[in-house]
Amino acid sequence: MKRLIPLIPILIVAGCQSDATVRSNAPMENFKSSKSADAAVTCLVPSLAQHYKAVSPQRFVAQTIAPGKEYDVVPTDGMINGYYTYTINVKGNGSGSTLSIYKGQSMLPSITESIRAGVQACL
């Protein structure tokens, strides 16, 4: 266990890097919302879980990039080959926000549609 403790910061940074790698490609889709970034994230976390259509339920969490300005919403069990299956980036802009869906891995169309439905419910 003592040998693993020094690796924890590296593992945490590696997780963030894999998310940034997914976002380095063009988003699959962008949506404009009249909600602030904070309000959009508050809506997205439960909405994505509710709309997610797969064999097992999925939980989502928000990762803060810049408090009140930018977040990534990702699945808690959503890593394949070191990348999140989906990342929804939320950026505040003026009085609203932009929600961008990034796809990290090829997924079934039904799952992609469920992610899209979860985002659209929060516009």
Automatic annotation (TrEMBL):
<protein>
    <recommendedName>
        <fullName>Lipoprotein</fullName>
    </recommendedName>
</protein>
